[in-house]
Structure formats: structure tokens, C-alpha cells
Amino acid sequence: MTSTNELFNISGKVALVTGGTRGIGFMIAKGLVQAGVKTYVVSRKAEACAAAEEELKQYGEAVGIAADLADQEQLSKLAGEILRREPKLHILVNNAGASWGANFGEFPESGWDKVMDLNLKSIFFLTQALGTALQAAGTDVDPARVINIGSVDGMTSPDFGNYSYSASKAAVHHLTRHLAKHLSTANINVNAIAPGPFETKMTEHMLKVKGDEIIKVIPRRRTGSESDAAGTTIFLSSAASAYITGAIIPLDGGFSTTR
Known about the structure:
Elements: H1 4-7, E1 14-18, H2 23-34, E2 38-43, H3 46-56, E3 62-66, H4 72-85, E4 91-94, H5 109-129, H6 131-137, E5 144-149, H7 163-183, E6 188-195, H8 204-216, H9 226-237, E7 248-251
Parallel strand pairs: 1-2, 1-4, 2-3, 4-5, 5-6, 6-7
């Protein structure tokens, strides 16, 4: 049996975290870098990438690359750059996402397409483009890992009018299962984390309006923390989870069980 220390040791691996310059993506990237993983973070804005890279380098190896993953040309260019630098990619965290809220009768097509293109379409095509590097990294004992960031909004019926967001996240959960089945023979595990309320820029308005009410219905009586996001990702990237694929893990303090 592998020792307990080795079960959770991911040092020396290479990871890519999309949307990794802020929010849950940055929490995950920071945790991976601190665990000894060379971590690439991607965001639309070059300035955000540079700032995140500088901060993460306090803890280990980190590289920021700017790319808008909703744009297929930029997605392909990013994948090509990663493949040029890294023949093996052990961990791909598909976290980049957007939301859009509006009343039902006013919800625009642009708000639907923008969210679906980034939250769902980019996950499939980036994973596809990096498939060779993931397969090169994976072994039967220690598969490569694709970790998709879904949401409890894809498991429940949200109170807000974020229709395309919740639909996209439900689709991410099912895409995770589908990819898990088809990529298992290539030694690639595919799982999803479905976060509940975390204090991020995306949830700022929601928590400002309904924060106290939301926390009251979370069994753990708090929002998610940096260690929650990092710890779950490290587990899913480590030998401890080698036999887990196709799982959707609610990271929500029990929130989804009350909805």
C-alpha cells in the first residue's frame, strides 16, 4: 500500500488552471503551487495573468498566459503554447466561467451564448486539444486528471435569473460523466467539483443581497474557503483518488441537500 504521505503527494506534476487569476480558480492554483505543482494560470487579461503569476511565484513555479477561451482561435493558440512547453500535462482544471442574470422575459440571446461558449464549449475543446499531453502524463497507477468546475446551481433551481449559468453547469456535470467514460482507457480521470457559495467577484451581488439568508440554510453555516477549494482539488489530483472518475463532488457545506 502507498504510504499516507505519498497518497496526497502531487509535487513535480504540471497543471493548467483556466480562470486561475481570481476567485476559486486562484484558490485552486495557489494550493497546487504550494503543493509543488508547476501551474499555468489562464485569464483573458494579460495584466491579471502577470499579477497572479507574480503572487503565485512566492510559493513555487507559476506561469500566467492570457487567452479568451470563448474564442476558438485563442483557445487553439493557448493549447499549442502549452503543448510546445509541456509534453505532459498531469492536471487540467477547467474553471473559467461567466454568469449572466436577467428577468425571464428580458433574458437576451447574447447572455445565453456568452455563458455557454465559455462555461461549456471551451471545456470540451480545450480538453480535446490537450488530450495528447494528458494521455502522455497518465498511467494505470496514476492517471492524468481533468477537473471541471461545475456548480450547485447545476444541481438545484437557483433563486436568481441566471438561466444560462445553471443550464451550463448542469451540462458540465453530464459532460464530465461522458468524458470520464470515454477517456478512462487513455488513463485520464475526469471529475467535477460543484462549489456552493464562495466569496468571489461572481457571487458578490448574490451574497450582498441574500448572504445571511443563504448562510442560514448551509448546514456548515459558512461560505467556502480557500482551503476547501485547494484541498478538494489536491485530493482529486492525487493517488488517493486514482479510482474515482465521473464523480460530481458538491463542495457546498451541505447546501445542495437543503434545496
